[in-house]
Design brief:
Helix 1 crosses helix 2. By secondary structure, the chain is of the alpha/beta class. The protein has nine helices and nine strands. 44% of the residues are buried. Helix 7 links the parallel strand 8 and strand 9.
Length: 298
């Protein structure tokens, strides 16, 4: 592993090399170290930045391999959870902190679960945000049903009628440009009411970037760690939006029920992006969890 940055937790952009591939991450804030893994796969990290959390935590935001300024894998089929977890481990090892908090959103939550199961000694606390312990046919069937109902939930919004078709286009995208364009079109799907926040979210929507190769990763089987959740002894916070079409409360409760001693926070006015829809409640839940977990260790 080679670093081109001075001081692993110095504020700013850092670059290391893991298994010959560049891994970029960004450090901001102060306090206990929390490494954040964004979702997708293949979506740029910036959407997950939470400046309010940086007043409580030293946030380390990964640019997942295959996105942004991080390197690319030679074979797109290698964008698998165990590979993402290995890159996450490389960053955590480089940071030098004995243990860190790990925050995973959506697909990043799958990575965080995999990492916590494989390296429990390196995790001070686990924050599973808008994610699930299982995918597969039932998971995707439920999500697609919600996609189909989206126009009915927003009858006064003409833009909503095109979202189901745009979602299919995103799944069929063949280029980075097509994938990015489709994601911008379907962004309202990820909110309880996107149009309430449309003006504030416009810069995020216009700046959203995505890369298609990470979508081509080939997992040996659908993600499913339900049978192993009981072995997680790490303090865990599960956060879900009540209106999340893909990783809603049904899946959050599976996590909460499966992980001993975990706590569940449901954001009542949020979809998949609760950190943007209810930032104060999200920050309060995460910062409070970290503070209480740190105090319990003393």
């Amino acid at each position: 592993m080679v670093s081109t940055a001075t001081g692993a937790l110095a504020r700013g952009t850092h670059e290391i090399v893991i298994d010959g591939v560049r891994q970029v991450f960004h450090v901001a804030g102060s306090g206990p170290v929390c490494v954040a893994h964004s979702g997708g796969p293949g979506i740029a990290w910036e959407y997950l930045r939470v400046p309010a959390l940086e007043r409580h935590l030293t946030m380390v935001y990964l640019e997942p391999v295959g996105t942004g300024d991080s390197g690319r894998l030679a074979d797109p089929r290698d964008y698998r959870l165990e590979v993402y977890a290995r890159f996450l481990h490389g960053v955590i090892e480089y940071l030098g902190a004995p243990r860190v908090f790990v925050l995973g959103h959506s697909h990043g939550g799958f990575v965080a679960q995999r990492y916590a199961l494989d390296h429990p000694d390196r995790v001070a606390g686990l924050i599973l945000f808008g994610t699930s312990p299982v995918t597969g046919e039932e998971f995707w069937g439920a999500a697609m049903a919600e996609v189909g109902r989206f126009p009915e939930r927003h009858p006064g919004r003409p833009e909503a009628s095109g979202v189901p078709g745009a979602f299919q286009e995103a799944l069929a995208a063949a280029t980075d440009e097509d994938y990015t364009t489709s994601l911008r079109r379907i962004l309202p799907l990820y909110f309880a009411d996107y149009w309430t926040h449309a003006e504030a979210l416009a810069p995020m929507r216009d700046g959203l970037r995505a890369w298609i190769d990470p979508m081509r990763g080939e997992e040996p089987a659908p993600f499913d760690v339900r049978d192993t959740l009981g072995s997680i002894a790490i303090p865990t916070l599960v956060v879900a939006g009540a209106h999340d079409f893909i990783c809603g409360t049904r899946w959050a409760r599976l996590l909460h029920d499966g992980i001993p001693g975990s706590r569940l926070t449901v954001l009542p006015d949020s979809g998949h992006m609760g950190h943007l829809e209810e930032p104060e409640a999200f920050t309060r839940a995460v910062a409070g969890f970290v503070r209480e977990s740190a105090q319990a260790e003393r």
